[in-house]
Amino acid sequence: MVGFDPGEVFDVLTSRREVLVSLSEGGKKPADLTTELGVSRSTIDRSIRELEGVGFVDVVDGVAHTTLSGRMALSTYNRFVAQLDDIGEAASALESLPPDAPFDSVMLDGCDVVVASDSDGEQPLERLTSLLEDAVSVRGCVVAALPSQVEVYYRRIVDDDVSAELVATEDVVERLVTAYRPQLVELCATDSFSLRSIASLPYSLLVVERPTGPVAIVETYSSRTLVGVVSNDRPDAVAWARSQIDRWAAASTPLPFSTAREE
Asked: Locate the HVO-A0261-like N-terminal domain: which residues (predicted)?
C-alpha cells in the first residue's frame, strides 16, 4: 500500500493494537492468536484483514507477520498514548495557567507530577523543598515567595553556598523587600546569589542542578497557593526549561542598588 489515511490508521491501531502487539513478538497463525488473546476467530480474521489493509501486517503461508511499517506505527502509537497519559496526569497542575502560556510538551514527557489535594495540600511544597534540598545550584524564574520557600533558599545559599540566579516578578521583589529585607540584604551580599525583576510570569520555572544531574521544575499557583509541581529530568525537558528561562531573563532588569541595601 502506498500512503494511507491517518484517521483510518489511527482507528485501526486503536482497535487492533493487541493483535499487532502479539504479532510484534513473532509470526503467528490466526488460531494461535485466538487462543492467546481470548477472542473469536472471526475477530482475529477481521483484525488481520484491517492491519493488512493499512500495510502493518503480511500473511505468508497462513502466518501473520508484522511489517516494518507496522512495527514503527506501533512504537509511534505507544509513545503518543504515553504522552497523552502524561498530559492527563499533569492537567490538574496546569489548569490555572492561561491557554497562551509558553509551554512545551517535552516538559510533560515522562514527568513527575505532585498536585495539592483536599487531604494533603502541602504535597507540592514538600516536593519542591526536597528538590531544592538536593540542589548544587538553581537558576530560574519565580512568581511566589512563600515563607518556607524563602527559608530554604536563604539557608541553602547562605549556609550551604548553593548558587542561585533568579528572576522574580515585581510583586515578589516587593514582598522580599518589605517582608524579608534582612535576608535579602544578606543574600545579595554573597557571591552566589543574583536577583533580577520582570513585570509578570505565568508560572515559576527552575532548573536545579543536583549531584545526580539537572531537573526542570514547573510550579503553578492559584491565589498565591502552590497547587502543582511538575518535574522532569529528561534532557529535552531540561533543555527547553533552560531556553525559556533565558528568554525571560533577557526581558528582565537588574534590581536598583538601593533595593538590596539595609535601611
From this structure: 14-85
Cα distance between the two ends of the chain? 77
- pLDDT tens, residue by residue, 53-92: 999 999 999 999 999 999 999 999 999 998 899 899 899 9
Q: Inform me whether the pLDDT recorded for 132 exceeds 50.
A: yes
Identify the CATH class of 99-260.
Answer: alpha beta
The one-letter code for the residue type at 242 is R
What is the enclosing helix (H) or strand (E) of 49?
helix 41-53
Distance CA 227, CA 219 (A): 8
Assigned C-alpha cell, 159: 549556609
Annotate 102-158 with three-state secondary structure: CCCHHHCCCCEEEECCCCCCCHHHHHHHHHHHCCCEEEEEECCCCHHHHHHHHHHHH
More confident residue, 143 or 116: 143
The DSSP H or E segment spanning 239 is helix 235-250
Q: Are 182 and 151 in contact, with CB atoms under 8 Å apart?
A: no
Task: Domain 6-76: state its class.
Answer: mainly alpha
CA–CA distances in Å: residue 128 to residues 111, 123, 154, 207: 14, 9, 15, 12
Q: What is the pTM of this model?
A: 0.82
CA 36, CA 22: separation in Å to the nearest integer? 9
Given a cut of 70, whether residue 119 has pLDDT beyond it is no
* Sign of the CA dihedral running 207, 212, 213, 215: negative
Sequence spans of domains, the chain: 6-76, 99-260
pLDDT computed for residue 244 by the predictor: 98
3-state class (DSSP) for residue 86: helix
